[in-house]
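Exercise 7. Predict the joint structure of the components listed below.
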Amino acid sequence: MTEEKKEHNKEEFEPRIVGFLCNWCSYAGADLAGTSRIQYPPNVRIIRVMCSGSVDSMYILRALLEGADGVFVGGCHPGDCHYLDGNYKARRRMVLLKTILETFGLESERVWIRWISASEGQRFAETMRDMTDSIRKLGPNPIAKQWNI
Amino acid sequence: MTQHMDKIGAVAIIGAGITGVQAALDLADMGFKVYLLEKTPAIGGVMAQLDKTFPTNDCSMCILSPKLVDCARHPNIEIHTTTEITGIEGAAGKFSLKIHQTPRYVDLLKCTSCGSCAEICPVSLPNEFDYGLSTRKAIYKSYPQAIPNAYVIDKIGDGKHRCVECGRCEKVCKSGAIVHEQKPLDRVFSVGAVIVAAGAQPFDPIVKPEFGYKRYSNVVTSIEFERILSASGPFQGKILRPSDKKEPKRIAWVHCVGSRDKSVGNDYCSSMCCMYTAKEAVIAKEHHHEIEPTVFYIDVRSFGKDFDAYIERAKKEHDVRYVRSRISEVEEDSKTKNLKIRYEDECGELHEDAFDLVVLSVGLCAAKHKPHELVKTLGLSENVFGFVDSVSFDPVVTNVPGIFIAGTLLEPQGIPESVTQASAAAAKAGMLLRDVRGTLVSHKTYPLERSVEEEMPRIGVFICHCGINIGGVLDIDALVTSTKSLENVVYVDANLYSCSEDTQKKIVDAIHTHQLNRILVAACTPRTHEPLFQKSLREAGLNPYLLEMTNIREQCSWVHMDIPKEATGKAKILIAMAVAKTRQLVPIHTVEIPVNQRALVVGGGIAGMSAALSLADQGFDTVLVEKDHMLGGHLNNIFYTVEGLDVHAFVKEISHRVMSHPRIKLYLSSKIKDVKGYVGNYDTYIETSAGVELFNHGVVVVATGVEENKPKSYHYGADPRVMTQSELEKRLSEMDSRDVCNRETYVMIQCVESRDNTRPYCSRICCMQAVKNALRIKSLNPRAEVFVLYRDMMTYGFKEIFYSKARESGVVFIQYDSDWKPEISLGEHIKVKVKDPLLGSVDIPADYLILSTGMQPPKDTMALAKQLKVPLNSDGFFLEAHVKLRPVDFSTRGVFLAGCCHSPKFLGESVYQGEAAAARAATILASGKLESEPNIAVVDETLCSGCKTCILVCPYKAIDAVEKNVDGKRVVHAKVNEGLCQGCGTCVVACPARAIEQHGFNDRQILSMIKEII
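Solution:
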């Protein structure tokens, strides 16, 4: 990042990320990151759901409109879904949602979906680091709160 | 009548590894009081030390830990650690078990596991959990997730090697849990049955000096390597070698250390080492791609379900190098501490390779250790190796009535077998004590639930310091202040330990005093602690689902330890989000689903008969459906065991018991036409020769077996001298020694159309059947010659002894490679050409060619799988819920499996698997009712347009279209079946009319949280 751009993005910018984590894998993975004391940036606010397949596109859009700079969806690895195939449903939905976001001029990289198992505390922390960095580079979410003006 | 009145509805389980834990959970759910006795300070056993488990590479702790928590929480399980057995009196149904408990010096009820004591303790000792690769303090917890979740003081040993009683821990312990003056305790438990699950020990390779263990620092055992791999291990999951803490590149594994080895008296196979070696090599490679793993082996015994595929992946995808060889010596370079391995390959050539780290794949042994004393105390008979002897057809039954055996103290084996035996032993105890089931269990009663629907939300928030775990990072006072300002919050309290017993009392009191109607606990993860706080709400007369938790420990203070200001800021938002959801909480009323207490067993082979008898003996009416006109299944083609026992007589006896049992209704020449319903309430249509009959039942056990593959290769069917192993067995069973005295030659070919592209799995039993029949031929006619052409001899466990015996009696075993399959030409003799690694191409003129062709699922397996909505694996066998810990359950509640339809297996294995399925089924049948999932979906009929989208997406077929007559119009809407819905929320998202919501996670709740993200 050039000095100029950095200034433009405001050094102070701390991305706000909402994470929807499935109860059985990713939420447990986030717990393991904690029990293993693996440090990661404090930018994510986690909302526990039973299955990544239950994360409605509406939740993600609403989070972006409310001011989230990024939205993370975490599910079980393919084939491991506690509810057989909810993670596949989530993936299909995310692909579609990302296309829609692009058509509205919002970077689809603001929405991440990743598979993190209950044993992948390290991977959860790394993913949070990567996502925070990546959203920080993208800058603040331009559509936040503009809907109610 | 009077006799059974004396029986005691309690069972003692000795050993709380995964085997003991499973038996405890099954028995407690079946309605028995359980004393779970463990000699170490924590339950969990060896499985807690493992990093991952094969063949799924599941995190061992992740799958074990929930079972441990279940044990700790179960009202019918009493855990007693640091406890050993000193004597037993009485008889089956009524034993007095004497125990001796060494002091823990820490009050279990007071210890909050904060860890301050260990921090201040000045005495460091080798950590046995890491096999001395790390240290621990004299006051310690075996491992972070240990149950009981409490510390223990080590006062064993002398002088510096134990607690010095300096008193520092006492001073620092805020809850006053340290009791230095605790005394040992001797007690007697009255129990109806005993299950021994004390386990075996890893072999200590110190007695094999050629491997250099303990002499060379970079030679470790496989279990030590598990700890090295583990994130909670000595190097935090980094693969480092002990000498210089550097990353090793070339790692060698040496198979069969302390197994298949007469020189140390262990001439049996330890069964699981081949697979854990492959797993360790694969995981090491996953940690660091540069690692070059080499495995030195004799045979690769991948006899279990999906094991062969795992080995293939290890070889092909992970570049694990497999060298068939015998190791002569390991030698250390004293400067570099690298190691040289000298070995002889299969062609007899000598080689030398250099490695950075050598892992000895040690086997299991029982003798000369603690279990030996236990076995003597209980009066159990043991085999020459010190493992407990069982009645051959029923492995979990010992020589002492009322004492059952399960796990590795019976025979070295993997986790699924141990867990299955645990359930089988539970079934046996359940059969013995069926008349006193439910007599000693406690049921907690709660006050009536207060109605809160009409009240404004009055939220109480309890913020936890968790010792210094949260309070050491977050500014709790600031959190209390910010929380107090939130709407509807009427009470905020901060607690040192929210999970402690006294905080529970405080929560109950606050609910009463401040008329709280919703509770938020800001502490640790709801995944472990939610049930605890829910219980407190119930005690205060609130619906348990009016509780919300927010995780400010695992997901805040522990992961942002260096930035307290930012962490506190995040915690404020997390609490605000959670308060927003708490405001929207509504009571959830689960329903009790009545359970029809009858069982259906499909398949009348040995597994099905064993399951049916076990269920019937436990007092449940059972219907057994068999498609053939007789019982016995594949066993009708088996005539004798390798020990010489008469299989047909056994089948006859069991069949007779099944046919004469008053609680078993048998349908022969019948099959399942249709299955409707769900767990607890099935309607099954059985097609018999006399027509279709309807049967209502609560559970299903699938035991449909296997059949022998009839091969297409090797001229089978075209020449009577070519036959399968079973056909040979039938002939041999009809002969006696007078019939065969001439010189004749038998050639057996193993893995025919098996472990190749046609059937890419090992059928487990064929090698042993070949050994058995070869021994039979030799005993009938010592002049006969027998050649066995094999790829890997899968004579695991004690079966290895018979393999040795066959070699000693002159049976010739020739190893062949899958690329060089034996060739035959027919003539006066059958000419068999095989490429021997040592001798090159060999021609054997044979009189008989015997094909070991492997087993396959019967053709109608797929149809039954569809009827029951249960999955098959890629080889066509039924796929259980979890290969390790739920081996006889399907993921569909209420359906179980047993026997060869799971994967090919031996008679004894099918017997105990049948019993295990019966035990698992009994956990559902026993109470007569089930509680529905709380987080299920509900349909708002007024919004539902009847489009049926939800019905299509539901993975559990839990939604039905229901027709209704509204004002003369026919209206269709969706209805969720409370018994089937598992609460995934898929339908909620799919509904275009937003007519479905999920209890506990509805749109209002989630959206209100989203509003608070800033």
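Discussion. Chain A has one domain: 3-145.
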